[in-house]
Prior knowledge:
Blueprint: H1 22-26, E1 45-50, H2 57-72, E2 77-82, H3 85-96, E3 104-107, H4 111-119, H5 127-133, H6 135-138, H7 141-144, E4 148-149, E5 159-160, E6 163-164, E7 167-175, H8 176-181, H9 190-202, H10 215-226, H11 231-239, H12 249-264, H13 276-284, E8 290-294, H14 298-304, E9 310-313, E10 323-325, E11 328-330, H15 338-348, H16 351-359, H17 375-388, H18 404-416, H19 421-439
Parallel strand pairs: 1-2, 1-3
Antiparallel strand pairs: 3-11, 4-5, 6-11, 7-8, 7-9, 7-10
Helix pairs in contact: 2-15, 2-16, 10-12, 10-18, 12-19, 18-19
Amino acid sequence: MKTMRLRATGHTTRHALLAGTVLALMAPLAACGGGSDTAEGDGKTLRLWHYEQEDGALSNAWDAAIAEFKKTHPDVKVVFERKTFDQIQQNAGMILNSDKAPDVMEYNKGNATTGLLAKQGLLTDLTATVRERGWDKKISESASVTARYDAKGEMGGDTWYGIPNYGEFVLAYYNDDLFEKHDITKPTDFKSFEAALAEFKAAGITPLANAGNDHPAGHWLYLLALSKADDTWVENYQLYKGEVDFHGPEWTYAVNKYKEWLDKGYFDKKDVGLKGNDMTEQFVSQKRPILVGGNWWFGGFTTDIENFQWSTAPYPGSEKTLGSGGNHWVIPTKAKNKELAEDFIDITMSDKIQKLIGEEGNVPLAAKPDSITNPKSRELITAFNTYQSSNGLAFYPDWPVTGYYDTWMAATQNLMNGGKPDAALDELAAPYEKYAASRR
């Protein structure tokens, strides 16, 4: 088995590629166009930052967008600087409040990031521009929630501060060869999904990949709750629009079903200490025929799986899934060339660049699946569009409360170690209810 090159690039963690310091953030790391990086407000220089890994799907798309921008703006110098996620995350507030602010940059979605900078007045209100350029027609309501904020800096407001170009979501990956070998029908609904789990277990195979020491275990628990949830439930939990009952039917079903699957051996209790890459190795090595996880694993699978056929589909047990619009472009309030920044964003939303994002194995927000020639990528995008078109993106379970990710991991690990379902719910409820009370 060759070394896995899978890299989680989803909502939960982004590993720094380099050590981030304020000094490094202020200095250009890479420049396109040469010369000084001093940007004047004369419409002749575009300063652009992003933190995508070189040669990754999104980095390739942004390289193509820069090349297209240069064609359409031959008199404009582009100064591009590749930062690390941590550099921008840790120092953005200070830098954007100085004359070193770029004209456009990639930034992380969420209340503690884009929402905080918007509330501090450091990001440009893009609402009018979104309507003028028609970006709101290309981005669905559910995918735009994390791009829109209210006066408190909380997502889901009426003011656009970011423009996402791609999406992310959790879906099902199937080892088609193992399904065929054991004469098991691939699932089309929850009943057939559980039937497949039972048949694999009867054949001596643990069906579901999992990782208790990382985000996948919590994702499973939230996904099970979503299978019994509606839009109001999601908004109450994620956006604090109403009361959340952690012992209500949705959460109770989730922990009980999770425990049932543990007891039946559909999950392996020994997976409690595994990380996400360990989980994907289970799928790639054909030890687990089913993996339900993020599309951020997709690119690695296309590279690392060579000896069996596999496919993707929406998880058949729920009309909602974990997911959202991806990280987005923002324009700092102190940007010197905002119109050029808008022009660049517009190019990233073009059919050409959106198609490239799809062909590279990511999920474009504004490309039709039938325009994508890569069949596996087309399958992935079709699955995403199924959720996007029905308001089925329900964000991630750890988003509502700062530091909640650790709580989620501890609660699911306790459940996998034999803890009582009600105790897991109490564990999840405590920090959430404390924060909810502080907002009143």
